Fold each of these.
Amino acid sequence: MEIGTYVFLQTLISGVLVGGIYCLIGIGLTVIFGVMRIINACHGDLIMVAMYLSYFLFRSAGIDPLLSVVVTAPALFCLGWVLHRGFITRLSGSYAEDNSLLLTFGLGLVLANTVLVLFTADYRVVETAYSRAVWRVAGLSVSAAYVFSFAMAILVTALLYLFFMKTDLGMAIRATAQNRMAAGLAGVNVERVGRITYGLGAALAGAAGALFTPVFYLYPTVGSLFTVKAFEVVVLGGMGSITGAIFGGLVLGVVESLGAVYVSTGYKDALGFVAFVLILAFRPAGLAGRSRL
Amino acid sequence: MVIPARTAALVAACGVAALFPLIFRHDGYVLNLATLILIYGITGSSWNLLGGYAGQPSFGHAAFFGVGAYTFAVLFPSGGAWTVPGFAVGGLAAALVALPIGAVIFRLRGPYFALSMLAFAEILRLVAQNWTSVTKGATGFMLTPTVEGKVAHYYLILGVLAVLLGITAAMASARPGFYFLAIREDQDVAEALGVNTVGYKMLALAISGLFTGVAGAIYANYFAYIEPNVVFSTVEISLATYLIVVLGGMSTLFGPLVGSAVLTIMGELFRVFAGTGNVLLYGILIVLVVLFMPDGVVGMLRRLGPRRRRVGAA
Amino acid sequence: MKTRWWLGCIVAVAVLAGGLAGPRPAAAQSKEPLRFGAPLALTGPVSSFGTQDQKALDIALEEINKAGGVKGRPLEAVYVDTAGKPDVTRSTVERLSQRQDILFIWGESTSAAGIVAAQVAQRNKIVFFTHVAAAPDLTSKGWDWVFRQNPMTIEYTLALYDYLLKVVKPKSIFSVYENTLFGQSNNGAMKAFAEKNGIRYMSEGFEGGSQDYKPTLIKVKAADPDMVFFAAYLLDALLLTRQSSELELKPRLFTSAGAGFIFPEYLEGAGKAAENYFSAALWAPDLPYPGARDFDAKWRKANNGKQAVYMHASAYSSGYVIADILKRAKAFTREAVKEAFAATDIKTAYGPVKFISYERDGVTFRNQNKLPTILVQAQGGKWVSVWPPDLATGKPAFPVPGLKP
């Protein structure tokens, strides 16, 4: 294969696969945002908690991280519920909405540093049979673990879609997202919906965490990286839109990869930020064009 | 003659601030802390103009801080007392940066504005880190301070803070202050009433950016060594500034200074006594302040004081 | 109502006063142990460096104190966590300088913190002694109160340069480095070397912790360089190595600036992918320095069999340097300690230590210890010293099997 073509295709593949990871990170955040208009600045730290949980399950009971989703997702749901009930609903005062950002940021710091104090800052790694597996397709290298994550992101989106379209609870959540007051008048318990949604977003973060454990190194403050990417994905794809999160994730992944190769690696993250600001400023509904579930 | 309690407390505080370095002139540690409190007081007070009075909290003021710091460092690396006006140059550079930023995002409200500012701060941090020919990148920039001696620095910075507070007080009780208040309480209504919301938001952003840039320049001068991850830091600068003002009292004149004092001292205490857990305590503090003291220390003190009609702020 | 107002003010003032009084230690101190300040990163992103340095120094101090200390008095390090942050380091060194019983300052864990510590120490006329901070600026400013035991970043790769010029003779180099002081400094030095010797030079800087380096490595592969040079810490070192092998990147040789690569965790984690990688190193247990092997054995015993790395050896040896200095000091004052530092001439497990002035690339360095650096290669899952020949214990495997000839 000619070198120019090779570079482009390999970069593209790399970008798409990383994009899959980004989608997973963004889905949970966009659900929370779409319904509650809360910008959950501790989202990445929730993922980190799930990663640690998955890590310890692997180390102590040999449970494969992909399987540990069954444990991490519900566990994180509970954590999310507690956080919402215990802290987020208490927001009051004249600056409540703005302060939700500061509050969730603080909660994120608490999560990350509790883990730091309990488990030290040492890096942890999980090596499974497929961690390093690479498939060779027409001379190009494709990382198996990333493909799994990508497939998972699609699966989760499909399941969420069914949930929101077909179940009563799903419809109640959508109603609350569309018009909180009207939903309340129609008999939806908006408080409860809020808590469930936050828990759901956290559960999605939990699933993402379990999937990342075989692929990423783990340390207490890894969450901040994820949070940043999650924001970018959500804004790019349209806040509150799940298909938007898929779209946003892919776009971000590809833009970063191409940027790293064709522009400069040092500025690769800056591209994501620039896209973030431009979309917010000029097309706030996101690239997918909708801002509703 | 009855002197109102507030005025007496104020005069006492000013006296303490002015005489402080003379009392402690041999204690480098305490002077250092006091100077830090003043620097963050300036940063907080400038943030307050935009975030408190005009109601547009930003999560990325490190952008202006860093621009001010690097502009000063690059233009005036060799020190000398004549470079004191260099602080103003740093501030101007930051204000110049604020203009295009404002132009792009003035339409955004609330958390979106806050996050966009964060994005800008990060972009600028990456530029500082990669543009090594000018900023020396991660190696950091070492410069010679304009004045020698902690006491001299203290008074210099105190002077800048006094000027800033003076300007803030003047603006707050004049037309801009009322317009800021209108924008903060309900931007759409203000617009409908004929207030040039875009213009005044830009004004607030520019002035806020200017003084934050000055604070950055002062910081570079005092520390004599800066690097991108420090002066453009989201947690250490942007978040801390936001927190200082919330802690002290948004849209109050002295809130940011009080917040700066409390936070700086508590930060030291946490570090000394809590070791590994000091950031954890910091996070807990943020949560507690946001949930239980959203009006800040000064806000709480106000509510304890005699009831008065609140017109505008301060 | 008015009463409460005063209460509020009093409370606020009390907090402030308490805060100012709080962190300072009580005036009455026992004068028995000989104390020095030790700011370092015990938390934060580089906490593993700080905690390990602390461990290594403690081993030395324990041995010294067991043997009677210095003139019958034990040595005591006053450790303070600075998380590697320059701000905190500044306050910490200020605070330590105020204490009358602190004779000098030892540390730090990052070069940025080290520079700040040096500045403050110089201003407050107290010695700052570093065993690991590598930014050249620390000893190029003519600060007479600052002493450095370890080589500087620009010296790390000297053995590598020598090997490249004498044996490899590469025509092109691609450097992938982290955007930190360590990475940028090493990249700058490598670039200068390439330009001086007519070697084509390309480079890409990255943000640490990015997790996915494939796009950058794809770019490297497309450029088809003779040599790939990495400057990164452990996490990224592992990812770079692993992802390079996934992409089948095949230059003539892989080299690195040390740091993350030199840790035993790197070889464990990277496995076969790291075989035959070269790395700059400041020290190895098999070097002909007195006590080097013994220290490695002691370290392994205390650390689950993990091999000792240069910073551990440096921290350990610095303990002995300190003991020697305090023995020779005419009095236990800061001035006398400084004089004793300047007159140091001692052999340690880390190498000979003598603080001199010398020139490099037109810059004069002061109070700097001049040590040779070496080149190691990963052979059979272990780092083996392969260059220069007079310090080597093994032979370099070059051309590298499996890579471009």
Note: Confidence is low (pLDDT under 50) at residues 1-5, 17-31 of chain C.
Amino acid sequence: MVFLKEYKNDKLWQENLNSIHIRSDLLVSERVLKILGDVKGKKILDLGCGNGKVCRWLAKKGANVTGIDIVNEQIELAKSIEKERKEGIKYYVGDVTDKNLSLAHKKFDIIISLVTALYFDKNQFKNHITLVAKYIKSKGRFIYANIHPCRVLSYLPSKGVELLSPRKNLNYFNIQQLKSKIISVDTTTTTTTTYYNHPLAFIINSFLGEGFMIKKIYEPQATKSELKKYKFILINEDKLISYIIFDLTRE
Amino acid sequence: MVKKFMKDFVKKSKQIYESGEKSVWLIPKGANKYKGDYGLLPEDTDIRSWQIPPSSAMLLRFLMLSKKAKIALELGASVGYSTIWLGLAAKEIGGHVYTTEIFKAKAKIAKKNFTKANVADYITLYEKKIINVLKEWPKDKKIDFVFMDADKQNYGKYLKLMYPLLNKGAMIVVDNVGDYPEHMEEFLEQCKTIKDAATYMLEIDHGIFLFVKGGGKNLMPLLTENFPLFKSNTLKVLIKDEELLGFWKNYMDSKVNLRSDVLISPLILDILDNVKGKKILMMEWGPGKLSKKLTKKGAFVTKIDLKEQINSFKNLKRPSDIKYISSEIFNKQNNPLNEKYDIIVSYMFHLYLNREEFFKSFKFIKQNLKDNGSLIYSDIQPFRAIVKNKIQRGVISLHNPFHANYLQFIHLQAKLRASNGDSLLSEYNRYPMSFLMNIFSKEGLKINNYYEPIPNVKDFKTYPILFSEEDKRVPPYILLKLIK
């Protein structure tokens, strides 16, 4: 796993090593990098870039990358690594649900939003997609990945995360706030996170409303060997579907 | 006396089951009340206990009789309701039931109930922990039948201890699988890893899981043929063509509705709006109820019948202004219809196609749909099978939702319930979301709108037999409008 190697190399990140983050790295970020293919010379915008893991990987492949995140500390961390490595990545603190957000670059070839939109309510989600539509080049590519909307309805547990909201009454249609406990890999620390579940009809129709076309949908599932190898973060990932990835384009 | 007791006992348990409350029993004299003793607190004035639904209890007796089980073991007797039904079976076949109840007050009531039901001679109750009962079980006394209704989180442990004690062909019946699946994950996993075994998931009551050591004959025909719950007047399964004929007549006249007729059909009519003079190709399950409606609105309809269903339409009078074709046509190459259609509708149709037929049908759609024409596609919600956690009464599925793999093409069998209480046996496939969406994209069909319809208040009122609360929580269907 590309990212696991990075984690080991970077002491800065070991502090907040959560299984759910490694899992989404394996089942989303790695898959997305494969889906993107050759990115050499492409202008890429990463919305909700966090500490810049995906940005750095894309920069290594020769892309011209910009990362935005609302969390100041994360961007500071990303910038400090950029200072050391000088990969030419630009980072900004910014709200990616602000449709009027202004960026230095005019348009991007590729925009990615990876497991970011779960923190957005209905309006924020729509604004997020409007922002993407505004900054994407004609026939550009938009990769959207998030927790699969049906995931929360399943009773099968995942490693490192525990739903705190009462499961029995969960309704697929209520775009409600959910609460989960996140447990670190070494199970020593826990944090609580709140997020939203959006029905597929809402997500898909939001894309269509902004003129996007769905090229392909991926429902990444762990392979048998991955399940074995990453036992410490994967459980039930061969039965369920934890994430959904949309490969979209816009005229 | 015994008859009256059983009658009252069944009546009481029925009431309790239907009201969703726990049964309440007076605490017997001398019961040891101390804090933390299995739910009985010093301030408690009565014993509350859950009981299995009467239909599950009758099923237990039926299964034990059909297995001719001489030695039955029950984990968790509570006040003895299920034990009595096992005891009745033991009485008939000369067997014996061993049961456990750690809580003394409950055990006392249970024993009294056994005597009242006249089955005390056929039941031995151990007032011990289950784990100890299993550990002390004589190795040569092989068990034929097990009913598990105790501490769910320890089922895995119990199975490990129990398995060597089981006779070949022994059956384990597990209750509440639908209510507490999260506590039984390990147990169900374990059952799956045992190679020489058959497992069944009965979606009745609280969800009953059957495990048969050594596999053996398929149990399903036995259940559907003999067990009252699966073969009652209120849940009549229509299989023969002559039985279906009457059903189709009522169905075509809209006297009888299925779930999709309430949720999907009106939505399609709404989306299509003005169809006068339009050429529509209908891929429709059944004899063509929606096709008939569209014809009435002035559309020129060609209907494709599922080849498996055609025989049952033979003696049915269908509207003569509709052209009927068999789904065999997907196998023919090149543009077989010689004309292009404005609209193609797939109305609960593609789920009955296998993977090969599925791909062929989309080639066919591409060939026969005009440019800018629309495809209305309906299907079951791809993820429904893996997220459902409440059990619908009267629906049998051969597939075990707890072992479902989302990305596999799962072949399912279920009963389709109709609003008049009849039901049809239905075998269908479930395709993952990404599979469906990527076929659309591959064949150049652009998604224009995506719907996830659920029943409204009126639907619930009009068709209480068709919908459950679960349908509000998880959408049963998907409907898409696509443009070529």
Note: The helical segments of chain A are 2-9, 11-14, 19-36, 53-60, 72-85, 122-135, 200-209, 224-229.
